[in-house]
Amino acid sequence: MKKIFLSLFMVLFSLNFAFAENLEDNSIEKELEKTQQKAEKADLDINLKSFKSCENMEKVLENYFQTYWEKNKESYRKHYWKTSPQLNATMDMAETKKETSNSIASNKLSGISDGDYSKTNTQVKGVDESDIVKTDGKYIYYFSNKTRMELSSRQKNNKYIYIVSTKNKKLVKKIKVPDTFHDVELYLNNGKLIVSASGYSRGDYRGYYINRHQKTYTIVYNVANIPNLKLEKIYMIDGYLSKSRMIGDYVYVVSQNYFDIPFHDFKKADDIQIKADKIIPKKIDLSYTKNKAKQNFKKFPFHLSTGKVASCNEIEYILPDEKSMEKYDFSPSYNIISVINTKNPEQEVQTKVLTTDNAEMYMSTKNMYLTSYLYNDTRFSCPANTDCFMPYYNKGTNTLIHKFGINSSKIDYKKSTLVPGVPLTQYSMDEYKGNFRILTQTDNWDSGERKKFTGLYILDKDLKLAGKLENLGNNENFKSSRYIGDKLFMVTFRDVDPFFVIDVADPKNPKVLGELKIPGYSTYLHPYDENHIIGLGYDTFQNKWGGTQNAGLKLDLYEINYDKKCGDSNLTDTEKAKCEKGDYKGIIAKQKFSKVFGGKGSESEALHNPRMFMWNAGKEKLFLPVTLRDYDDDYNPKDFFQGMIAFNVNKNSGIREDYRVTNIDLEEVEKIRLEKCKPYIGKKDQKVCKKLLNGETYCYEKKTKKPPKYCFADANVWSYFDEYSWDFRDDFIKRALWIANDVFTISDNKVKALELKTGKEKYEVEMN
Q1: What DSSP string runs through 374-424?
Q2: CA angle 174, 159, 743 (to 5 degrees)
Q3: So what's the pLDDT on residue 701?
Q4: Are 359 and 380 in contact (CB under 8 A)?
Q5: Considering the domain boundaries, does residue 683 fall inside one?
Q6: Which domain holds residue 712?
């Protein structure tokens, strides 16, 4: 074993010492290739507690899975499913998901650092969120996932983390990311670059009841000296990367691993035998250390530890009793919270293992909340004098909430509770003055009647219900929300956009202060100041079939006047008219300014990913990467644009588009367009004559192939791009950030620097 690890470290350090000489660093890929299978054989116990023993763990899990199989065995006899139907559905949902309690002052500055450069737009001040791009004001760190077609027509990804010096205006380092990595995300803090990702291994794990192919990786680099960056930690654990956050020097990584029970193989319940040794997730932890006593080998300053993430009696679990199992679907999985000290990477990674499900996550500086969904087809109340998993829950989908206390590397499980409905995103949740607030959408059929509404539930520090406000936006779809101190702003939509202003100062008595109805809707809300909110979403229109359909993208500036309400004598004539019509209700919340850009088919990832909403409050500038399209009534393309738009948003003068930027070389695209149109130039219909059977000659016009629309004089270069946009996907602008008076647009192929005020191009750096 020592010889294996010795060769491993020789590879590691031969790469590590070459960092200063080589631009490209591929240490992650080579290291993982050599360690993964070897380290699986080693074992290391950690001390946490919950199950009484391995025997107890095996018995509890066996009882659960045997009971589950008994209740669902007919399904497995009819269908060749590897896991349970709802387990499969939950796994699919989890794989496809990839989503505040502060004062106005902190929210207003969201996206701005203490220095004059942008930071990731986050929900909670002091809690960082991952992104594919980070900057410290001197360097730009960007994860690029280029795609190219090989000669074999197979698609191959070129995955790198590029480091660009804004001072020297050039690429100074690129870190090779293994092809097996996906969902790569970055953190940057105090000279440390943290890379987290999901990945997979090619080992043979038949006979295990959990998925050991899927892995979560966390890698820590010291980037204090970019030419000589140092690899300080590689941490690998079973399961895929679910969520993560960073507070100070600590990264909190939540990985999820579903049970993989082959129910279809069993003929009777007793066939299900759980062996703890094969069902506990494992880890590999490779850390730099100066402590020679911890160094596994004399010549190399690294410590390697491997083995299980927890012993049997360290794993906490929540499993339903038999009565509750009859009432709702429950999909248990391992959720492993790993806390990594990036300042001191040799510190042992602390883990908390919970056997439950996980869908969404909210984190404050003191607490973490994990949610999961429970579906039941009937309303359920626990019988009297019976100890049930949950005493009561509504028919339909409910949300189970787990609360954990956070203190540096220490994580303590606090409480669990259940609320009706399902939250939309992490922005549906918030912690304020010790209370946890959550908005959910309930959509149930009861006695042949559909009940659809949004509900607000306020829970105290022990997750007991303090107050609630239900039936918001009846029969409407929940679209967005934002908590700002003791106020909540929420948008629902069906045909129009009800924008709600809700007072949550009294947790026992939340109440709607005002409501605004306008066309379209916002999918993301961002604070502007105490009385204004920016909304990003869609304009809508009624199509020729009578349905409501998305039109172009829409920016709104909402104004909330807490001193005026419908019925007051000081209202303007316009405000009175809107109150009478029902567009205003309660206090006066109005759409002060609105701007629509693009047409049908337009999109921006910022609609659903707030990290792409880059707001510079000091300069009142908003940067949005967009893909704009427009089509006529017959869905023929009219216009196309891919790039970034810079807006000025001012509460007095309105919303103004300042400039547009693209990273696509339009001159090159135009050359390609002209080349493709050459075959149609000078072509005319030709007269063709042929003899018939009776000897007569029949003549007709031979039609030439109709030229594509991008070859006509009234078309522009974007019309060609609309049809072949996939060929230029590596030039799509994915992110924008600013440093001082420069703004940078970032695509997989290049970083382009421009004057922030005017959009004038200054330079660009190719990433190849």
Answers
A1: EEESS-EEPPTT---SSSEE-SEEEEEEEEEEEETTEEEEEEEEEEESB-S
A2: 65
A3: 80
A4: no
A5: yes
A6: 666-766
The listed range with the strongest mean pLDDT (42-51, 223-232, 449-458, 539-548) is 223-232
- Cβ count within 10 A of residue 29: 17
Residues 234, 239, 243, CA angle at the centre, nearest 5°? 80
The predicted structure's pLDDT at residue 357? 77
Q: What are the φ/ψ torsions at residue 624 (nearest 5 degrees)?
A: -130, 115
> Tokens 């669990």 identify what position?
416
Count of structural domains within the chain: 2
Contacts 24+ apart (CB under 8 A), 633-640: 633/544, 635/600, 636/709, 637/709, 637/719, 637/722, 637/723, 638/599, 639/599, 639/718, 640/718, 640/719, 640/721, 640/722, 640/725
Q: How far apart are the C-alpha atoms of 117 and 170, rounded to whole Å? A: 19
- Alpha carbon 83 to chain centroid distance? 26
Q: Which among 545, 500, 547, 503 has a CA at the least distance from the CA of 521?
A: 500
CA dihedral sign of residues 756, 758, 762, 768: positive
Helix (H, G, I), strand (E, B) or coil at 39: helix
Q: Which residues are within 8 A (CB) of 731 and not within 5 positions of it... i.e. 6 or more apart?
A: 662, 663, 664, 665, 747, 748, 749, 750
Of the candidates 587, 526, 524, 591, the one whose C-alpha atom is nearest the C-alpha of residue 557 is 591
- Measured CA to CA, the distance from residue 644 to residue 658 in angstroms comes to 11
Pairs from 644-648 (Cβ < 8 Å, separation ≥ 24): 644/733, 644/736, 644/745, 645/597, 646/621, 646/622, 646/743, 646/756, 646/759, 647/555, 647/595, 647/621, 647/622, 647/623, 648/620, 648/621, 648/622
- DSSP readout, 201-232? -----TT-SB--SEEEEEEEEE-SSGGG-EEE
Residue 302 CB contacts under 8 Å (≥ 6 apart), including other chains: 9, 12, 286, 287, 288, 289, 295, 296
Rounded to whole angstroms, the Cα distance separating 707 from 587 reads: 58
Distance between CA 638 and CA 722 in Å, rounded? 9
User: Does residue 403 lie in a domain region?
Assistant: yes
Lowest mean pLDDT among 91-95, 103-107, 260-264, 689-693: 91-95
| Region 119-137 average pLDDT | 97
431 assigned to some structural domain: yes
Stretch 113-119: mean pLDDT? 77
Centre a 10 Å sphere on the Cβ of residue 717 and count the other Cβ atoms it contains: 19
Domain membership of residue 260 (yes or no) is no
| Strand-pair partners of 165 | 139, 170
pTM: 0.85
Residue 102 has pLDDT above 80, yes or no: no
pLDDT at 335 over 50: yes
Domain boundary among 466, 487, 515: 466
Sequence-distant (6+) residues with CB within 8 A of 15 are: 25, 26, 27, 30, 31
**Confidence category of residue 22, pLDDT binned at 50, 70, 90:** low
Task: List pLDDT tens digits, range 451-475.
Answer: 889 999 999 999 999 999 999 998 8
